[in-house]
Write a sequence for this structure.
């Protein structure tokens, strides 16, 4: 951030430096360096400054699109910004990747996979495109394509990295295939992260071990309350455990703190049991989030 600010002291009209600041503030917000509200609002200010100087600056359009998707929960505005960036620079690897990410969050998996593959054609070393594509293949149920992607990535990464890659994708695949006993076997013995605690809670619930499920639910609740973030992760576990009333209470908290990426819940399989619940639909409406797709 300081380096970009130093550049702007020399040239206050350097639009690309404002775009860099937009990305830096957004990343600082996600990493907890500053509050989400402060980080995203500063990011928006910098992106808008860049676009006021150069309305066709791709980097600024992509930064603005990320804000519209992750913080504003305005998927229609985000898609316009992503598409405008790609209209200006059709072979931009980051633009192709981030639009693929957008499409995946919308449940448009086939389109997302196509854009991720295009991003990797432009930049075969883009790790976030590999992870995005791998996760989307699993969400789409195209498990048979994951080995191909793993083989492609292995050409560029060492054995240690590939071990982490295989672990993460295997966990996700077990999760989405409801292979709960196998998931328990590969989870850490003492989960600590919110993601692992959520997986443990749901997995033990579905295997009928209520004592362990409730133990991990309590730990998950404490972790979420302490972080004052990721309320939707706790809500998802509660939905899976048949506790929609408590789940909706935590989703209300997620709305209040403007939890990043909350709009994704409309396509999250964990929330399928309440997708047609009038209270859930009312919450989405009040938050300005589109209702779940039908059909």
């Amino acid at each position: 951030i300081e380096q970009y600010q130093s550049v702007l002291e020399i040239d206050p009209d350097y639009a690309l430096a404002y775009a860099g600041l937009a990305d830096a503030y957004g990343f600082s917000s996600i990493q907890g360096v500053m509050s989400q509200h402060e980080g995203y609002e500063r990011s928006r200010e910098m992106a808008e400054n860049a676009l006021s100087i150069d309305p066709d600056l791709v980097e600024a359009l992509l930064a603005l699109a990320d804000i519209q998707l992750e913080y504003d929960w305005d998927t229609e505005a985000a898609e316009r910004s992503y598409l405008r960036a790609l209209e200006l620079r059709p072979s931009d690897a980051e633009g192709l990747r981030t639009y693929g990410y957008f499409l995946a969050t919308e449940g448009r998996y086939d389109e997302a996979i196509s854009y991720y593959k295009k991003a990797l054609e432009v930049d075969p070393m883009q790790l976030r495109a590999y992870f995005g594509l791998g996760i989307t293949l699993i969400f789409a149920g195209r498990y048979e394509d994951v080995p191909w992607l793993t083989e492609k990535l292995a050409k560029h990464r060492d054995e240690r990295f590939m071990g982490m890659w295989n672990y993460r994708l295997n966990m996700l695949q077990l999760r989405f295939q409801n292979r709960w006993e196998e998931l328990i076997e590969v989870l850490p013995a003492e989960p600590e992260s919110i993601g692992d605690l959520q997986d443990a809670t749901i997995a033990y619930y579905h295997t009928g071990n209520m004592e362990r499920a409730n133990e991990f639910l309590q730990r998950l609740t404490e972790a979420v309350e302490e972080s004052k973030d990721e309320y939707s992760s706790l809500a998802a576990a509660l939905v899976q455990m048949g506790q929609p009333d408590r789940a909706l209470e935590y989703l209300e908290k997620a709305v209040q703190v403007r939890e990043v990426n909350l709009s994704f819940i409309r396509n999250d399989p964990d929330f399928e049991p309440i997708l047609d619940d009038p209270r859930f639909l009312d919450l989405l409406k009040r938050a300005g989030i589109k209702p779940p797709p039908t059909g």
